[in-house]
Amino acid sequence: MTRDSVNGAASDNGQRFSAVYGVMGVKEKSMTIRFRGIPTDRFERLRLGGLDANGQAPIAMKAEGGANPCRHCLGLIADGETKLVLSYRPFDEPQPYAETGPIFLHQTACAHYDDEQVPPWFHFLDPAAIRGYGADNWIRYETGRIVRGIELAEAVNSIFADAAIAYVHIRSKFGCFQCRVERA
Ligand SMILES: [Zn+2]
Strand order in 114-115's β-sheet? Predict the structure, then answer.
């Protein structure tokens, strides 16, 4: 074996290592995801009287009970507090897969949720519906799952193992949009 061939082999191994390491790096990166509330600019517009996805003004009413999730802070609106009820389309543009549905929001300003952790109350979703979307904003049907809230983190992470998935939506058993999950 000549020196060149040894170096060549070493180089080849190095390239193989880089290739494997690179793939691992991509996988590692895909596991860093963030759960995000709706964009603050859209929240503020709606909160300050802007029209909803149906062209109607959000309805202000008293929150009753403990199941009134705000889609901006991804926390629960306290019993007795005022909530806004409105129609929301969690997509930038209308297109065949851009579902529109009812959501609640705090009427008063709240902090935008943007975190690697599943919002705490999501653990009580029973069940949650999750699905991945491609960069074209169309549903990737192979990703659809119904899971218990405590299984959300693992289930969402597994969807992101496919590089073709651009983002994931978490919905309630009623089909109501809860939040979007993206790669960090
Ligand atoms: Zn809120």
Answer: 114-115, 33-36, 177-183, 167-171, 128-133, 139-147
